[in-house]
Structure formats: structure tokens, C-alpha cells
Design brief:
single chain; mainly alpha; two-stranded antiparallel sheet
Length: 118
Amino acid sequence: MGAVEISGLNKLIYKLEKCKDLGPVKTVVRKNGVEMQNSMTRHATSAFTKGYATGTTARSITGHSIDGGLGYEAQPTTHYSPYLEYGTRFMEAEPFCKPAFNEQKEKFISDMKKVVGD
């Protein structure tokens, strides 16, 4: 019978051991979540150029870790923020959440690649 030789097993074990520690991943998620929350606040402060702006929506933006630190949720809590983000038939949209997300997602992907060694 022929023999089977497996090479690279030590490298695989090292990678699996490294992946077991989710601390660095949680750090990246939290850092990027907080940055996105701050970006949402900046956008909400500067985006509302039409109508009456008091800063209530910007002040209402909160964020917190979810799923044991593997996720982050940032959102405004004013009941009318969806109307500002998406608009209505009477007013144009003045988005502040989606631009913040789009800015942050590239940074997040880059940071995660550094953590997982891609």
C-alpha cells in the first residue's frame, strides 16, 4: 500500500489556535462601530440644510456592542429620523446613516484583514 504524507499540519494548527482568540476581532468591531457612530453624528450635524434643524437627531445617535462584542449597533432614536434618511413625498432625503456606513465599511474590511492575516 502507498503511504500518505500530510504537510503543513503545524501551520494549520497555529492558524486554528490564533482564530480561537476573538479579542482582536471584537476590538476591531468596537473601534469601527464607534467611528461609524461618530461619523453619523457629524453627518447629521451637517446634512440637514433644508428646514428647521435643532440638532436633536445628532444628539440622539447612540451605539452599543451586540452579539457578545461581535457586532455594533449605532442608530438615531428620534421617531422622525427615517423621514430624514429616506425622505417623504413632501421632502427630499437628507441621508446621514448610509454615508457614514459607506465611509466606514472600507476601513472595517481593511482592519479585519489585518487581524485575520489575509
